[in-house]
Each structure stands twice: as structure tokens, then as C-alpha cells.
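Dear colleague,

As promised, here are the two records you asked about, laid out in our usual form so they can be pasted straight into your sheet.

NAME FIELD: protein one
SEQUENCE, THEN STRUCTURE:
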Amino acid sequence: ESLLQDESQKLKDEINKLTNHIESRRSESSKLEAVLADKQKNHNDFTKQKNALQDERKSFWKEENSVTAEIDRLKEDLVKAQKSLDHATPGDIRRGLNSVSRIIRDHGIGGVFGPVLELVDCEEKFFTAVEVTAGNSLFHVVVENDDISTRIIQVLTREKGGRVTFIPLNRVHAPNVNVPQSSDFVPLLKKLKFRAEHRRAFEQVFGRTVICRDLETATRVARSNSLDCITLDGDQVAKKGGMTGGFYDSRRSRLKFVKVIRDNKAEIEKKTAHLENVGKKLKDIDKKITDLITKHQQMDAERDHAKSELEQFKADIASATKQKGSLEKALAKKEKSLANIRNQIEQIQSGIAMKNDEMGTELIDQLTLEERDLLSRLNPEITRLKEKFLSCKNSRIEIETRKEELENNLSTNLMRRQKELEAIISSADSKTLPVEVEAKEQELKESKRTLDEATTVLKANVDAINAHTRQMEQLKKQRDDLKALEANLEQTVQDGAKDLEQLMSSRSTYLVKQDECMKKIRDLGSLPADAFETYKRKNKKQLQKLLYDCNEQLKQFSHVNQKALDQYVNFTEQREQLQRRRAELDAGDEKIRELISVLDQRKDESIERTFKGVARHFREVFSELVQGGHGYLVMMKKKDGDAGDDDMDEDAPREPDPEGS
């Protein structure tokens, strides 16, 4: 008994020790759970920040793709406008302007502002008037001074780069045109937009022109105010009275192409700057996301370490609890054994007391009749009770066996399940659970949003696929219809080819007959004028009989030239033509001789007039050089066939010599 008591006390001490250990572990676990709750909260905050940054990055990506597509579209429009402008510009001018741009770039020449076309801007309704007024002056290059233009022209000449007209601002002196104020017209220069330093160049090109409402107003204004007028449709009236007008294709407007190029370049620069700004923002967001991911990973590592420590604490608590349960079971067994021993001791002591009491009583022979009679009744009862005791003892053994089985089942399965449920309950009571639930809900929302986006994209793709499928079905139907039409057309073509072959065969036959008839007609020679009227009403047999008779009669004249009459007529016509040609040549020869004579006369008069002037000046100069002297110039003339010289005074008149001298 004392041994069992000592063992029981040891078990109690160990249980108390384990209880204290479990409590300390639970206290540390609660602290770790609080730390984990804070870390989970921070983790959720970082996750929200990362998701927000990722959403912002997605929006910037989308904006970047949109801006990039817009820039590509603007560049395509810019290339198309440049090509259209090149087609609308004369080739030599375009080559010269390209050479000027290259020379400026290669030689680093400054002070070149560009062609007038690129420096002017106005409303679209004035494009036609500006282009018609300026003409090729739109391609004149405005430079700061004439030294720059001289240098560029020298390079152009040396490199054979074409020809370009320059407008040096230091040499331009625009005319001072006084334009009266009127509601019928407005100066074209007021409708143009240009830089102030280029004003003199624009005054030279557009300063003399006003815009009128219509052609009648332009005619009246040009006549009354001596101004060059133009309408919005491009009809011009010059101050000298000349008029130019007609259709002008505004779709090929060079100013429109330049405006598109200028606007697209400005828009491309703006979009490019915006794209660079978006790129910078994306870099900042990527950096922030990288920092958050780094912190997130560090926090995950700390959280995982805390979780592992918490799991270790829980495992220690579970192990200690299990050990405590084993010790409690052992203590219960020890206490039960101690109680059984005490019961046995008490039974033995009571038995000893009974035996001692019996030792003081007399034997059965000294029993009375009543006692004997009672003994005889109690003996069967004692036997029955002993048997009942044995049966109860066996039943107790069976029950204890069943109890041990149930205890084993309880400790093996149910207690383990209880511990698992307690662990789940303890985790449910943990402070980190609401934070984890919030994180899972956030992940669920993100997943739902992603799913909705994917569903939207999938629906759009399905709709697009259905639309393309319907379009393909329509195209297949059109293809089948076209194939049927093609088959019908091929059949029609084949039928037409057969008919054409028949017609060509018939044509060949008729052509052969026509050649035969024409040969016979040529053999007949020339026919009288009334031949067709005479034989028109006769039938084929009569004509054949007459033809036979005529052929028989013609055989008698086979040696006669049957084409003599035709030849005579032809030769007569040729002679008349030659005579007319001769008369024309004679008239031309006479006119040429008259022209030669007139030219000779004019030549002689011109020579004499010049000689007289020279002789007069010679006489005056000679009298000044030689005091009191006189000098004369005399023209020595020689007629055909005459070797003598004929002196003639410089002032004497001379008749024209028809025979030449």
C-alpha cells in the first residue's frame, strides 16, 4: 500500500509538471498566434497593395498598347500623306527640296526656315485659294540671308542636286499695297498664319491678292482697284484683266497633305511623350511591386518560421497532453489498485474479526433446534449466494474485459479524434484565423474578378467566332452562287463559241464567194451608170442567160484592152493633179523671189543707214582731232562685171540696186 501511494504521488507530481509545461506552451502559442495574426494582417495589406499596383500596371499596359497602336496608325497616315505630297509635287522640285534638306543636314547649315508650303497655315476652306495664288512659289525656300542661299546653290551645282528657288529675307522688299476696306473682299494675307519673321516673304507671295465672294465680284474689284483677285474655288482675275479658272481637285491639295503631316508629327510627339511618361510610371510601379514582393517573401519566411514554431508548440502540447493522459490513466489504475488492496485488507480484517468471534463460540452440537433449523435453511441460501457470487464475478470479468476493449478503442480512436477536433477548435479560436479568412476572401474576390474578365473575354471571343462563322457561311454561299454563275457563264461561252465557229465558217465561205465575185467584177471592167437600174428587176435565170450571151460576145474582143477606159481616166486625173501642183510650186517660187528681193532691199537700207551714222560721227570726231581738217568715209561699191570704183558722198541718197552690188 505504501509502495502504491509513493508511485501515485510520483505520478501526480509528473502530471502537475506536465500541466505547468502545457500551460507555458499554450501561453507561448497564444503569443505566437498574436504575432502570426499581425504578420498575416501585414501580409494581407501587402497583398492588397500588390494587387492594386498590379491593377494599375495592367491599366498602364492597356494604355501603353492603345497609345502604341495610335502612334502606329498616325505613322501610317503620315507615310501616306508624305507619299501623296510627293506624288502631288513636280519631280524636279521634289528632288531639289530633298537635296536642300540633305545639304543642310550634312553641312550643318543654319538659317534655313523651309519652303513656304511648310511655313504657312490657314483654315481648310482657303487651301485652294492659297495654292492657286502661290503656284510653284509654295516650294520656294525661305532663308535668312542671301549668303546662305548662295552657299546652298553652290553645293547644289557641284553635286547636281537639282534647282531650287530661294527667298532671302534680307533682300526681299515687299510692295506696299493699299487695300481698301470692303465687305466684298478681304486680303488673303490676313487669313494666313505664319511667324512674324517670315512676314516679308509672305507679303511678296500673297500681298497683292484679295479673296472675293464670287467671280463677278472678283472681276469688278480687279477692274476698279487694280488688285489680283481670287475666289474660294480658285478662280483668278488678274489686275491686267486675265482670268483663270475651272475645276480644281481639292482632294490632291498639297496644303492638306502638309497639314496632315504637321498635325500627325505633333500628335506623334505628344503621344510619344505620353508613352515615355507611362513607361516611367510602369518602371516605378515595377520597382514598387519588386520591393513589395521582396518584403512579402521576407514576411512569408518569418511567418512560416513562426508557424513552424507554433506547430512545434502544438506538437509539444499534444505530446505532453498525451503523456499526461497516460499518467492520469496510470494514476487511476494505481488508485484503483490501492482501493482494491484496501478493500481486500478490510475484508481480511473483517474475516479475521469474524473468525476470532467464532473461535469464542461453541460448536454445532451445542446449537439449539431453532439455530439448527436456521442453519439448515441458510446453508442452501449460502450455496445459492455463492453460485450467484461466482456468476456475478464472471459477469464482472466479462464486463471489465468489455470495458478494457472500449477503453482501448476510446484511447486509440476516439481520443485521437477528440484531440484532432480540439486542435481544429484551438486553431479556430486562434487570432490568425479571421485574418486568414479575410485573405482567402480577398483571393476569392480576385479569382472571381479574374474569372469574370476571362468570361467576358471568352464571350467576346465566342461572339467573334460566331460572327466569323456566319460571315464564312455567307462567303461560302456567295462562293457557291458565284460557282453556279460561273458554270452558267462557261456554258454560255461554250454555246457562244460554237455559234461563233459556225459564223466564222459561214463568213469564210461568203468571203471566198465575195472574192470570186469581185474578181469577176474586175474582169468585167468599168460598168455604165445605168447598169444596175437596167438589170435590177431581172431574175437570176435571165441574168445568167444574159451573162452567157455577153461572155460569148466578149470572146470576139479578147485581144482588146478592156481596162483602157479606166486607165485613161486615172491618167487624166494624175495629169490634172500634176498641173495643179506645178501651178502651186510656181506661185511659191514667185513669192520666195519677192521675199528675197525685199530682204535684200532692207539689208542695203540698214547698211547704208548705219554707214551714214558712222560717217557723220567720224567727220565730227576727225574735225575735233585735226584742227581745220576734214575727214570723210567713202563706201567703195563694185557692180557685177565692173572693176571700177564709184565714190559717193556719205549724205547722198542711194537708190536700191535690184541687181545687187
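NAME FIELD: protein two
SEQUENCE, THEN STRUCTURE:
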Amino acid sequence: MQADAVVLLGAGNMEVPPTWIRPEALIIHCEPALKPGVATCVAFDLINKQPHLSFLFWKTKSDHNYMLCCVFWVSDIEISRAQTPKPVDQLAEEIGLLPEELEAYGRNKAKVQLSLLDRLHSQPDGNYVLVAGITPTPLGEGKSTVTIGLVQALSAHLKLNSFACLRQPSQGPTFGVKGGAAGGGYAQVIPMEEFNLHLTGDIHAITAANNLVAAAIDARMLHEATQSDKALFNRLVPTVNGVRTFSPIQISRLRRLGISKTEPTSLTPQEVSAFVRLDLDPSKITWQRVLDTNDRFLRKITVGQASTEKGQIRETGFDIAVASEIMAILALSDSLKDMKDRLAHMVVGTSRSGGPVTAEDLGVSGAVAVLMKDAIKPTLMQTLEGTPVFVHAGPFANIAHGNSSVLADKLALKLVGRDGFVVTEAGFGADIGMEKFFNIKCRASGLRPNVVVLVATVRALKMHGGGPNVSLAHQKNIVLFYLCGCHSNLKKQIQIAHLFGVPVVVALNVFKTDTRAEIDLVCQIAKTCGASDAVPCHHWSQGGRGCLELAQAVKEATRRPSNFQFLYPTEKIRTIAQKVYGANDMELSPEAKSKIDYYNQQGYGSLPICMAKTHLSLSHMADKKGAPTGFILPIRDIRASVGAGFIYPLVGTMSTMPGLPTRPCFYDIDLDPDTEEITGLF
């Protein structure tokens, strides 16, 4: 605001926000290849060679002493590369890990052994903070950046032990619309390329494990359709070196069938038939293949068309990998044994007699556990300011439960100690990710949060107040776009958090186009809507320093009592529809009704609910902004993730395989073959 001239380096055609400069200041665009010193000289030379430009200065600066400001437009990936991460073994030592508890994956990241929980079992847990958000625009409102900025403020500036716990990003959004999930600006996990691409291979392990189960299903159906009981038995329990024995997983199946025998030759023909015949109903197989790519053309496919499959043709489809039940199990397990048990209990379909068929019945759950044995360990990384981050699991919040792993949170809470802070993030809006954090993740973990940080942005509140869906342009109608937006969506999301008895601090993620009047008004209204505090955050441009006010507000809020409670004991779907979304009621399709009856018969009625719903609205209609009321929530179908431990209704037209837009992010992502540097990733 004090500069007479602003030199923009590498800004392209981007306009400078009017709040950044004086009205009479000169703006000079320079080529991005110029260095700062050269750009300054070029600017002065340009001023002195063009009298009409010089006049703008000379009329106010008679002594020819100019104040000139150079502004550099730097991408997230350039900021990430400008900081050299500390070696991961140094980071591990700083946070109290022993060398034998670390499995390094290169220089910048490492898996952490679960034995740490045993070593620190008597250590008191730290403060538990959840970052959620208002209903977002399609570009997101910055929950990841707020999470990272907050822990940078707590650790690097307030010198308090703190940990961020984040989900691993899926390649779907990374190459689709939203981009990566490492944060942005000066609030990032680094190196961001490693964070956004592959990481330590956990999602690939989930993909392999999920598709192994799918292959086992189709292979078993083929073999049962083409072989006699005796032939099946001889192949399932072969004679090796003159000895025939059941494997441990086959013994488990015999026990579930009520057969206590362990000698293969002692089974009766009826027992042999019961053992070898899963008799899966092809029309009631619920398990699908997965791929970590947005590919709409795989939503419905036909398999078994080759002649070698002998007419075993059926319709199936693909989900995105992070929607796999195995991902949910990874996120909710609290030990390797717990994960193995949950994998065994995954229901893949129904037999023709109406009974559930599990991964253990298929004989595949042990092999799946082997594929997942390294994935269960959280990955240690760091922020731009060198503070620790656990990256683990990555379920979406709209089609899964949308939270990082229980194990990452538990490990972090022990490492930070009684006075420390663990900041974990729930996906999308509070009506989806936060509700599932409370009702699903907290049930599984036994952990209770101290405070919720609710992220809001001016642009999203404008949208909810009646503005365009996504607009970075400045809107001057404060009454329309703020009072409406704040009193509808922001107020509703604060109320949802209060349903669970947890205090709320609103973090306003400030963008360069926001005015002081807008920022002050949003914070004021948030407090009148029930927030314990509401503060502006400048972490994107200032890092942890820009989140100090939020850190102090969170620290203060954790001193207040948290009267945590679950939302529902019974009538779960209707309770969520009415109390969280604001619906008048729900409407079950005939298929959903029959599924409810079936799941109740199988004893799954007590499981919590994981709603699969659009994240772009509190309702099932993505174009309904603000806090809509008076609608009926349609439940199209209901599926069971028995191993993960929840039932998930499909709301409206929700799909578990996203599609690519006309212009995906991958148009901008490339590799320099000389330097091996990645460009275009954000």
C-alpha cells in the first residue's frame, strides 16, 4: 500500500487485487525469467525512458526517490522445492522416536512401527483437535492448509508439541479437478510431489488387495459351476507328499459351518458339499473392483465374456480405490490383529440360500492381510516449517467416512504428550466428514475431541448467500452475500458440531480478494452463531505466523469442557437426515427397504451409518446452497461394509466412481527429462 510502483514477475495476465496497492501506483509486468534485481533495473529504465510513466512519479516525488515493490507469483510446487526438508531420521529423533521404530522410504519420509504404542502406553494423550469445514465450493476451502498452518503456529512459533494427521491424496482428484492435498502456499507438507504421488504405496496396496478379492470371487464361481464336489474338494485340499491337511483359514470355515473335524478324510459327503460350495448368487455380489483413477466408463462393465470363462458372464463395475472397504478398514483398525479380523469379516456377497459370504469364506483374507501389512503403518513427513505430520489412509468423505487413520491419531497423541496438540482433518463439509468422524471414527477409536476448528471462506459464503457457484471476483453486496451465507450454512455447520457437545472455533481462510470489512463481519457473525471464537487466518501467505491467532484461540478453547456425545442410538438414517442435513424426512427405495430387512436379519442393524452423499450441499441436491430445508432425502440403495463396521446408504444419484471433467488437471502436469522435475502439480 506504500509502494509507488509494483513489479509483477511471472504473473501472466493476473490482476492485482485493489486492496494491495494505492490507486495511483504503477503496475509493471515483467517476464518470469527475469531475476528480481534485473526486474527492478528494467522497471526503473522503463520509467525513465517513457515520460508519460515518469510523470506519474515525478508529480509526487520531486526528489526522484521512488519506493518500488517487487511481487513474485510463486506456485505451490516452487515454494515446496525452495525448502530443503530435514532428514527424516533427524525429524524422528526430534519427536522422540527410536531408530528401530522407523522404516525409511528414501530421505524424506518413513513408516513408523506400531510397537511405539506399547512403549508409550502410559504416556497421557495430548489435546485432540478436529478441522472441519462449511459446505465447500468445488475447489475446496482450505482445510488442509488450515490444519498445516495451525500445527506450524503451535510447534514452530508457540513451541508446543503438535502433530498434523492427514489423509493420503487419491490420484483421482490429483489428476482430475481439485489437484493434490498437500496444502498450499506456505502451509504445505513437503516434498509435495512425494506426498501427492504414490507416497509409500498404501493406495496401491489397497488396490491390489481389493482386486485380489474380486478375482477370487469370479474364479470361485467359475470353478463351482464347472466341477463336482469331489473335484472341488481334491483341488481345495490337495494331497502334498502323501499328506492331506486343511489350512488354518479352511479350519475357520469349517468351524463357522459347525463342523469340528480337522481330518479331511473324515468329512461326510454332505459336509464336503457344504465346505466346497459357497454358492454365490451372481446378482447379489456386492464387491467391486477398484482403480485409483477417475474413470466414469468403468462404473458398469460386463465380465466373463471370453470363451475360457465358460459362460460365466455378469455385470459388475469399478469404484475408485479410496472407496474400497479395505481403505475404510485401514483407517479404522487399531492394530494389525484388528485389521486382519476386519478383513476376514468383509462380506462380498450373498449365497443363493440367503447367507452372507465373507472374504474368509473365500480363503483370501490372510493373503489380503499380507498385502496390507506395511500399509497399516503411518507415514511420517513434515511441513514447510519442519513440524511433524502423519499421512495415513485416504477415504473420501462423500462416499466413505472421510478421515485419516485411528492409528495415526493414537500414535501422535502419545508422542505430543499431555500439553501437546494433535490436529486431524475431516473431509468436505462438517455435515459429512465431521459427522462421520464423531459417529464412526470416535466409536472405533474411543477417542474424544476437545475442539472443532470450522474452516470458512468468503467465496463460499458468497455462494451460499446467493452468489455464483465459484467466483474469485470481489462482491460488494455484503448484506446479501454475507448475512445470508453466514446465517445459513455457517450457522448450520456450527449447530451440527454443537449436537455432539464440542466447542467450535471458526477459522476464516483469508484470500487476497477479501476486504477488511468482509473479514470482520464474518468473524462477528460466526461468534453470534455460537462459535467460541472466530479469527482470520493468513497461513497461505505467511505460514505458521499467519495462524498464531487461531493457535491461541484453539489453545483457549481446549481449556473449556467438552461434553461429547454420539448423535444416535437408533433411527440412525432419519436422525442424520433431519438433525444434520435439515431434511423433513427420508424416503427409502424398495431396494433400500429390502436391504435394511436383510441386514437386520444378519445382525448388522447395530452398526453405525456412513452416508454417501454429495459434498456440495447439505441436501442431496448439489445446486441447493445455504441451509436448505423442507426436502425429502432419497435413499437409493444401502450397502454394508461389515469388516469396516458400518452401513452406507447411497443418497440420490451419488456414484462411487468419479468421472473426469472436460479439462482435467493432467493437462498441466509434466516431467522435465533433464532435471526430472515435475511441473504443473498443485
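A couple of things worth noting about protein two: The first helix runs from residue 36 to 49. DSSP finds 25 helices and 29 strands in the chain.

Best,
R.
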